[in-house]
Design goal:
Shape: globular
CATH topology of the largest domain: TIM Barrel
Number of domains: 2
CATH architecture of the largest domain: Alpha-Beta Barrel
Strand content: 15-25%
Structural class: alpha/beta
Number of helices: 12
Radius of gyration: 21 Å
CATH class of the largest domain: Alpha Beta
Largest sheet: 10 strands, mixed
Distance between the termini: 27 Å
CATH superfamily of the largest domain: Glycosidases
Length: 380
């Protein structure tokens, strides 16, 4: 495997010739579209020689039930687990299923030797994380019993094999109650042959301030859950200023702290499968970035004739362009094979359990080819 960074004047045919590989392979692997234009700074995955593979890791990827059947089918060979997003619950602990049927995803996952995972989230009526909903359940044993029984009934009926608890913005006052909730869920799951994971906000110290961080006790959760996902993304996010979604320097800080509190064989590294397009100038409280896929981002750069720049600190690509309709400048940050390789290198350096993608709704072939080159994916 090689990563080639496009220079001015390059053509896909010339690159293929220089590596002595079939041009159609480069086109296919990198999802290039006719007439196969390139842009300076674009990173291409070049498959040369035989696959090497490496250490066996667990790989998960969140999916909504409305995912394209084709995208799911293409992605499942690279996954160990498929967390299906998501189940909710009422303030009294009654389980709320997704709006779309999830059975077909479960069946397809099992067919492909991938473990289907029930993802539990505390979404309120506005579709946002609701910490009052969390507080209502974790502080009432009857409600905890309700939700555990509802989860077990659903898992038996639908053939789920694990649960992922993705609670965000937990009140600091509910921190220990949340840990105890996870303990009870984990014990009930293990007693019935299932496993439990917890998604963790990206902390870099035990007493980090902020609503996103104070409600999660890394050490205590690491003791009660079977494995945990570090949500090492969203530094650049919809309402924030333009920056890398998962800058490797910030990701490393989170991993550095996490391994002091949680056994590394329980930890999965979170990886984003998307980017953001910001309109400039950024105005706090007003600006809203648009989400876009990684392949889409490169095609946008090509259409705008924008050189892609690689930030060596964040280890992430970005570019700017001017919208001809509005005259406004935009800034786009996304992931490419270089930024992903940096994350895979970190995953291997720390010998973590594996990685988890938010999310797999858009197909980015080069990512999976690179992952397959670096690691062997664990299958059930």
């Amino acid at each position: 495997m090689e990563i080639y960074v496009v220079k001015a004047g390059d053509t896909v045919y010339g690159i293929a010739s220089s590596y002595s590989v079939d041009v159609n392979l480069i086109i296919f692997d990198n999802q290039l579209i006719y007439p196969y234009e390139l842009v300076p700074g674009q990173a291409l995955f070049i498959g040369v020689g035989e696959r090497i593979g490496g250490r066996t890791i667990s790989v998960s990827g969140y999916a909504y039930p409305f995912i394209s059947r084709w995208v799911l089918g293409e992605t499942l060979p690279y996954l160990s687990e498929l967390p299906i997003f998501s189940y909710g619950f009422t303030s009294t602990g009654e389980l709320i299923p997704p709006l779309w049927d999830d059975r077909w995803l479960i069946e397809k996952a099992i067919e492909m030797s991938v473990q289907p995972i029930l993802t539990l989230t505390p979404f309120g009526g506005d579709g946002r994380f609701n910490n009052q909903l969390i507080s209502s359940v974790v502080n009432n044993q009857e409600y905890i019993d309700n939700i555990i029984e509802s989860i077990l009934q659903t898992m038996r009926a639908k053939n789920y094999v694990g649960i992922d608890i993705d609670f965000e913005f937990i009140l600091a006052s509910d921190r220990d109650k949340f840990t105890d909730f996870v303990r009870q869920v984990s014990e009930a799951m293990r007693a019935n042959g299932y496993h439990t994971s917890v998604a963790l906000a990206p902390k870099n110290s035990p007493n980090q301030k902020g609503l996103l961080y104070e409600g999660k006790d890394y050490k205590a959760l690491g003791q009660v859950a079977d494995h945990l996902l570090l949500m090492t993304y969203e530094w650049g996010y919809t309402y924030g200023p333009p920056m890398a979604v998962a800058p490797i320097n910030q990701v490393r800080r989170v991993v550095d702290y996490a391994v002091t509190e949680i056994p590394r064989e329980k930890l999965d590294l979170g990886i984003p499968n998307y980017g953001y397009d910001w309109t400039l100038p950024y105005e706090r409280g007003v600006s809203r970035a648009k989400t876009l896929g990684n392949v889409e981002a490169v095609r946008l750069a090509i259409s705008m004739g924008s050189e892609i720049i690689f930030d060596q600190v964040a280890m992430s690509p970005y570019f700017r362009y001017v919208d001809s309709n509005t005259g406004l400048q935009h800034e786009v940050w996304f992931e490419d094979v270089r930024s992903l390789q940096a994350k895979f290198d970190l995953l291997e350096e720390y010998k973590l359990r594996g990685c988890g993608y938010w999310q797999i709704m858009q197909w980015f072939r080069a990512n999976w080819l690179l992952l397959d080159e670096k690691f062997t994916v664990q299958k059930s």
